[in-house]
Amino acid sequence: MQLKIGRQNILRSGHLSRCLSASTARFAVAWPSPLQHWLSGPAARSLLTSRFASSAATSKVEAEPENIITNPDPAADSKSAEYIRTYEPNCLTTYARPGIVLTDGKGCYVKDIEGRKYLDFSAGIAVTALGHANEEIAKIVYDQAMKTIHTSNLYYNEWTGRLCKLLIERTLATDGMASASRVFVGNSGSEANEAALKFARKYGKTGPKGSPEKTEVVSFHRSFHGRTFGSLSATPNLKYQKPFAPMVPGFKYATFNDVGSLDLITKNTCGVIIEPIQGEGGIFPASQEFMEALRKKCDEVDAILIFDEIQCGLGRTGFLWAHEAFGPLAQPDIMTTAKALGNGIPIGAAIVSEKVAEVIKIGDHGTTFGGNPFATRVAHYVVEQLSTPEFLDSVKHKAELFRAGLEQLKEKYPTIATEIRGSGLMWGVQLNQDPTPVVDAARLRGLLVITAGENTLRIVPPLVIKEEEILEGLEILESAIASL
């Protein structure tokens, strides 16, 4: 895709240098010294200057970005329109979608049926961490499909145990979940959360302080945990819950990052479920104080603390698990994961501590497809790749390019963008208006971004994204905002 929009006006090297310097100072403790060295060195400035700076850019006269649409929506007589007319009448409509039909991709780009190329800042909603059409995954998929895809959990298979062992080993090698002991493998994030909620209920009834009344679950406003009845009951969003009310009884909703609201956790609470960074709710990170207070409160009443890392985990923040940033005083008893775990192959998992594992007996839970050798072999490869220190460091490096670029967009368009939130390659740009026009304008210029929460642009690209692709995407995003 040949971009023609105005590079010279985007992320000008002088201003971005100041953003980078500020970011480096602000995160001097949190980020490792190689990142500080890279941001302050010539490599970062050279990359930014070569992409955005020119003699015109450094002059006193600044050019406005050109308003050029490279990917217009398909016409009524296009292949895309014909496909939608033919097949949409047979599909149950539960999503509002633009009129493009995606067919293939590579790395951080996808193409539609018309052959037009898009830079993907959505990664299938934080799923394709290793990029589209990953060649090694393709080889694994072919090889395993030629052996066996499914055998059921009535028998052992070659890969479920290996995946569980790898997840525990790699987790214990981090600063997160020191109590990780066993893994239940399912098919999705919602299923992983359903398992976690069931395990918490079982612990509440049969654990050391168990009682028939210890069945309540506490979750938090703005959270999202899934669409099945249990996970939906833990998702206090009226838009999602109202059409299917009444919800499963026993759920209470506290306020995220409000220590005072933790009084909702009582001796009748069996479990508390929380995202260390709220994703669907608008990219809101939890605070250190809040997470430590939450862990302490759960210990006081012997409630199971569940961390939903379905979106924010597996390298998305530059740590294998997002809660590593909180240290040893804020760790879970159960942690759920999915999305990136299969890079697009459906799979989810609940990692549990030994005290949880002790109360789960044969027959307490099950799944037909969960843990099949096809999905678990792919997931094994994904975890191997995402958990290396080199890979995680690369996410931290690229995070600061995003932070600096998005902060500049906020400064340039303060009446539209009001706040930047996030970590690693998980960012939210808070707008003071409906983000749909920005999403549409970006798509028309060859960039796919999605929304979250209330008027929030969500940016969750593949973790393998290159620095030049980050800058290309920020350039398109700036042009999309400017076009409004």
Short account of what is shown:
The chain has helices at residues 13-26, 33-40, 42-52, 79-87, 123-126, 135-145, 160-172, 189-206, 229-233, 238-241, 288-301, 354-357, 373-386, 389-412, 436-444, 467-482, and strands at 102-106, 109-112, 117-120, 180-186, 216-220, 251-254, 269-274, 277-278, 284-285, 304-308, 334-337, 348-353, 417-423, 426-431, 447-448, 450-452, 456-459.
Q: Average pLDDT across residues?
A: 89
Put simply, the count of helices is 16
Q: Under CATH, the topology of the largest domain is which?
A: Aspartate Aminotransferase, domain 2
Q: Domain count, please report it.
A: 2
Query: What would CATH call the homologous superfamily of the largest domain?
Result: Type I PLP-dependent aspartate aminotransferase-like (Major domain)
Which strand order spans the largest sheet, edge to edge or round the barrel?
A: 4-12-11-10-7-5-6
Tally of strands: 17
Radius of gyration: 23 Å
CATH architecture of the largest domain: 3-Layer(aba) Sandwich
CATH class of the largest domain: Alpha Beta
Tell me the helix content: 25-40%
Tell me what the structure shows.
This protein folds into 2 domains: 151 residues, Aspartate Aminotransferase, domain 1; 245 residues, 3-Layer(aba) Sandwich (Aspartate Aminotransferase, domain 2). 37% of the residues lie in helices and 16% in strands. The protein contains 16 helices and 17 strands. Helix 1 crosses helix 14 and helix 15 crosses helix 16. The radius of gyration is 23 Å and the shape is globular.
